[in-house]
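Q: what sequence does this backbone want?
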Protein backbone atom coordinates (compact mmCIF):
# COMPACT_ATOMS: atom_id res chain seq x y z
CA UNK A 1 0.00 0.00 0.00
CA UNK A 2 1.34 3.41 -0.91
CA UNK A 3 1.96 6.07 1.72
CA UNK A 4 0.43 8.76 -0.51
CA UNK A 5 -2.19 8.57 -3.24
CA UNK A 6 -2.81 11.28 -5.82
CA UNK A 7 -6.53 12.13 -6.01
CA UNK A 8 -6.05 15.37 -7.93
CA UNK A 9 -7.58 13.86 -11.10
CA UNK A 10 -10.41 12.04 -9.33
CA UNK A 11 -14.09 12.71 -10.05
CA UNK A 12 -16.93 12.49 -7.52
CA UNK A 13 -19.49 9.76 -8.06
CA UNK A 14 -22.52 11.59 -9.55
CA UNK A 15 -24.88 8.87 -8.30
CA UNK A 16 -23.72 8.76 -4.67
CA UNK A 17 -26.11 11.47 -3.47
CA UNK A 18 -29.06 9.45 -4.81
CA UNK A 19 -28.16 6.28 -2.93
CA UNK A 20 -29.44 7.20 0.53
CA UNK A 21 -30.99 10.19 2.25
CA UNK A 22 -30.64 10.85 5.96
CA UNK A 23 -33.97 11.32 7.74
CA UNK A 24 -35.12 11.35 11.34
CA UNK A 25 -37.67 8.74 12.36
CA UNK A 26 -39.29 8.11 15.69
CA UNK A 27 -39.66 4.36 16.08
CA UNK A 28 -41.17 2.46 18.96
CA UNK A 29 -38.78 0.80 21.41
CA UNK A 30 -40.32 -2.58 20.57
CA UNK A 31 -39.64 -2.04 16.85
CA UNK A 32 -36.01 -1.08 17.45
CA UNK A 33 -35.52 -4.04 19.80
CA UNK A 34 -37.00 -6.41 17.22
CA UNK A 35 -34.62 -5.24 14.52
CA UNK A 36 -31.64 -5.22 16.93
CA UNK A 37 -32.35 -8.85 17.86
CA UNK A 38 -32.68 -9.71 14.18
CA UNK A 39 -29.40 -7.90 13.55
CA UNK A 40 -27.59 -9.99 16.16
CA UNK A 41 -28.94 -13.18 14.51
CA UNK A 42 -28.05 -12.17 10.96
CA UNK A 43 -24.93 -10.05 11.48
CA UNK A 44 -26.50 -7.22 9.45
CA UNK A 45 -26.73 -3.79 11.16
CA UNK A 46 -30.26 -3.05 12.33
CA UNK A 47 -30.50 0.21 10.34
CA UNK A 48 -29.77 -1.77 7.17
CA UNK A 49 -32.44 -4.33 8.10
CA UNK A 50 -35.02 -1.60 8.59
CA UNK A 51 -34.03 -0.08 5.25
CA UNK A 52 -34.26 -3.47 3.50
CA UNK A 53 -37.70 -4.13 4.97
CA UNK A 54 -39.03 -0.71 3.99
CA UNK A 55 -37.51 -1.06 0.52
CA UNK A 56 -39.26 -4.41 0.07
CA UNK A 57 -42.57 -2.83 1.13
CA UNK A 58 -42.06 0.05 -1.31
CA UNK A 59 -41.13 -2.16 -4.25
CA UNK A 60 -43.97 -4.62 -3.68
CA UNK A 61 -46.53 -1.84 -3.19
CA UNK A 62 -47.49 -3.18 0.23
CA UNK A 63 -50.25 -1.13 1.84
CA UNK A 64 -50.93 -0.78 5.53
CA UNK A 65 -54.43 -1.72 6.67
CA UNK A 66 -55.67 0.00 9.82
CA UNK A 67 -58.84 -0.75 11.70
CA UNK A 68 -59.59 1.69 14.48
CA UNK A 69 -61.40 0.24 17.46
CA UNK A 70 -63.89 2.57 19.09
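A:
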Amino acid sequence: MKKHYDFSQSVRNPYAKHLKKQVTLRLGVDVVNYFRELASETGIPYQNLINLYLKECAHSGKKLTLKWVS
